[in-house]
């Protein structure tokens, strides 16, 4: 089964394709099929993921899966949340992963509470007007490490510390990261939903 991934993030594509492979699902990055991105005007992950999935399905005629994920920090009342990808731009930085990490380290410096969560919400639709979207949410409690650790992964991985393991996601091999990460958790839920709903 071919499904368009409503994202241009190659890191997400690689992670999800590896996890979905046992289902015989082939994910195709939306950027390989069309240009442009869905509007994301909402304040929750599930609404934005649904907007992205419907947009990609409409553009391609294929079933679509979208991931809306973000960092929710206790010290900032759950923010940056849905604005995680653009977090650094509000502090004058150009949008990229390294600058996002730098901005969060700087903004958390005066705060004792470094706890938060990474949240991944996957939404799947069979077509743009699908009345029964598949929704899977993965959440993992993290702390923000005081400095970057490790060279793997992408996004905030170098500072996302799992206290129980004493490791950041960037210090873990991909298999271990997928076992514990927010996207790993949402992907396992989504795989089960695909298996019982779309592939049955």
UniProtKB/TrEMBL annotation:
Mg(2+) binds at residue 68. SUPFAM superfamilies: ITPase-like (SSF52972). It is an enzyme of class 3 (hydrolase). Keywords: Hydrolase, Magnesium, Metal-binding, Nucleotide metabolism, Nucleotide-binding. It comes from the Bacteria. It catalyses: dITP + H2O = dIMP + diphosphate + H(+); ITP + H2O = IMP + diphosphate + H(+); XTP + H2O = XMP + diphosphate + H(+). The keyword S-adenosyl-L-methionine does not apply. Binds 1 Mg(2+) ion per subunit. One of its GO terms (molecular function) is hydrolase activity. InterPro entries: dITP/XTP_pyrophosphatase, ITPase-like_fam, RdgB/HAM1. Its cofactor is Mg(2+). The active site is at residue 68. Substrate binds at residues 7-12, 69, 154-157, 177, 182-183. The keyword Glycosyltransferase does not apply. Its EC number is 3.6.1.66. HAMAP family: Non_canon_purine_NTPase. Belongs to the HAM1 NTPase family. Homodimer. Pyrophosphatase that catalyzes the hydrolysis of nucleoside triphosphates to their monophosphate derivatives, with a high preference for the non-canonical purine nucleotides XTP (xanthosine triphosphate), dITP (deoxyinosine triphosphate) and ITP. Seems to function as a house-cleaning enzyme that removes non-canonical purine nucleotides from the nucleotide pool, thus preventing their incorporation into DNA/RNA and avoiding chromosomal lesions. This is dITP/XTP pyrophosphatase. It comes from Comamonas nitrativorans. The lineage of its organism: Bacteria, Pseudomonadati, Pseudomonadota, Betaproteobacteria, Burkholderiales.
